[in-house]
Amino acid sequence: MNATIQGACVVDNDLYFSMLDINGLCKMNLDSFDVSYVCRIPGEGLFAKHLYSDIKYLNDRLYLIPMGATEIAVYDPKADICEKIPFTKEGENRNEYHNKGAFVSATLIDNMICMMPYKYPSIVGIDEKLSITYYDEWICHIRKEMSDFFPFTRKDIAIHDHGVYGISSYYNAVIHLDLKSGRSSLVKKGPAGKKKGYFTISFIDDSFVLMKTSEKCIYRYDTCWNLLSKQDYGQIVNASGKLEYMCSVQHGRAVYFIPFDSDTILKYNTDTERIEPLYIDEKNSSLLYFGGWIYEDRLFCYKESIIDIFQLDGKHIGTYAINMDKSLYEAIYRELESESDGLIIENEIADLNSYIGYIS
Description:
This protein is mostly beta strands. 8% of the residues lie in helices and 46% in strands. The protein is built from three helices and 28 strands. The strands form seven sheets. A four-stranded antiparallel sheet has the order 1-2-3-4. Residues 341-360 have low confidence and may be disordered.
């Protein structure tokens, strides 16, 4: 039985991850690849899907970023306690964003976790005291242009000088939040349109590196957003897919672009301004990764229940399935039994058909 990764976070030599198709937080050792069950998030359906898009670690606690979940979940591994924190403003209908994709990712900056919105109309910050702050000035610029004003930000987030930078590929804009002033705005605004904008962003060597898949180009800007260089990667990547990329990760002076619909992992070296294929799928099939990270000079890319591992020179080390045996699932179900005094009724929390199908 395989477990599918949704949100993930590396802490020491462990990967904590939320599952895509079941309510559960798990942990995988990145050296042995052993998987262990951590806890079920209270207040969410057992078979609820796409609950958490990301996980961040701050002051010995894990923060689970809601995608379809109704609240932020904060888990303390030492105390084995999970708290739930509402993210909606007072008077808002909490169900308005439930299962619609509230936040797509988050980043840690100045002892605060900033959550980038997919459909929720604000950047939301949560600090170590679990206080919530809303940053939504930039939303007014989107509302002026489009009736469907959902932010649709991408997975990537860059950090520079107490500033958080996200991207909206739909609105062709870079969103800037200055945590010193609390002000937020749009920079590098272009014509709006589906998939016309940037797909990835990173800050490295005092410059912003962004990928625009509609033009098959990688742009590099200085901190005042003056263009430093523009590199075409269209001739490097095989045209078997749409040449879409999910996100980027950086290591040293290089940026690695993780594909969502392309057969090539790209590497961009800021010293040489050179783009090169790190790895090309020999079958010319699309690599549909959901994200990745670098651990001990190795690039990990994950898709559903599979992790591909590469050396930073492009050599494919291996493919690993994230196996979750029945005992882990049964531990989740035992929690339900204890909460319901030994009686489990088939409902939206514990669907009997789903349970039978999952363990069979």
